[in-house]
Predict the structure.
Amino acid sequence: MKTIWWIRRDLRLRDNQALTAALNHGDQVIPLFILDPTLQQSGYVGPQRLAFLYAGLADLDEALRQRGSRLIIRAGDPVEQLARLVAATDATAVYAEADVSPYARRRDRQVAAQLPLYLTDGLTVLPAGAILKENGEPYTVYTPFSRKWKSQPWSRAILPAPEQIATPDDVESLPLPAEPALPATVPFVPGEAAAAALLRRFRDGLIYRYSDDRNRMDLDGTSTLSPYLRFGMLSAQTAAAAAVEALQAAPHAAARKGAETWLNELIWREFYQAILYHFPEVLGAAFRPEMRQLQWVNDEALFDAWTAGQTGYPVVDAAMRQLAATGWMHNRARMIVASFLTKDLLIDWRWGERYFMQQLVDGDPAANNGGWQWTAGTGTDAAPYFRIFNPTLQGQKFDPQGDYIRRWLPELASLPANMIHEPAKMSVAQQRQYDCRLGEDYPAPIVDHHEMRPKALALYKVR
């Protein structure tokens, strides 16, 4: 019997429940990826993430070929392409990992209405709809969600990658798209092996300093695994199991705190996937109804300065240029630039959410939306609307010597640590001394943070 393993966000052979189910069902498995024009042409998709996906598919194809199989590529409407492949191969089942986005669930319902589609878990450690209150309602606050999550049993046994996968020789396949190609500036090697190596490196050392270092933009203090989790090159269960393993092996209390903090971050990912599952409307509107009528200013010139990293606030500009160059941004930086956009520039969080999705290699609808709504104060477990980050103080605290800023803003590289966070305060003589002229080499601040804070508070109070 032939079965189809429909690959979507699970570009891996190890710990893949959909692949395992397909192998258990039939003696021949067809690994299929469908180039879906609805997703490829979405205004929320950018070239760097597409390039990372295509490179990851090429890596998966190579891993399959080493096992006697190969990746089958089709393009077009998923319902039509699956129906054609089922008819051409007499496949008796289609297995896929369940997703939570509104489009994915709608697509899967359409497929299931016509074909024998079986969905497995695997996007998250625990199924997105599994963590509920005693009354059956979903959680909308992270802390009680995380307590309930931690109380639930889950197996840390990781499914091995199959040694052999038999695939019919006569199934036609399109070539993988050659463009967009992955830029050399993107610092992530695509594929399952690269993800496993990164996880080992993090688990064996960096995780124990994670609690102390994770907010420092100038340090190598995070796992940088988010792109791999986004495309399932690493399973959520493998990551969580590594966190628990590190927690149990921690040599002292500070190390345990580091491992526990990273596990909590993985649970944040679970939480946001659950929110999108239960409340799909968050992709287009504030979760909190009272926040849906905020009168944003939405100045396009200010938005363009923000996207270009030309706001005159060094930590904001460094972060935005890191994003444009690499397709990634430190999580503390994401909060800083999101707060600046919404509460200093008074621009709708949805503008930033969309721009991030166009740029981020790890752009995930649930996590990206959750992060933006948290910072904007419009979401489920939101920061209070009156919490407004001071970008200068944030830079001084989390990039104290200015090393992060110097890396991404070479025009400020010569400034000493006591000036680099506030170049606008330089005298004319100091501008000449450090060869950095305000308004020429680096912009003056496009807004005054201290003037914008009361305006932001007024905007939110009028809701």
Summary: Strands lie at 2-7, 28-35, 72-75, 93-97, 117-120. The chain has a mean pLDDT of 96. Residues 289-461 form a domain with the DNA Cyclobutane Dipyrimidine Photolyase, subunit A; domain 3 fold (CATH 1.10.579.10). The two ends are 60 Å apart (CA to CA).
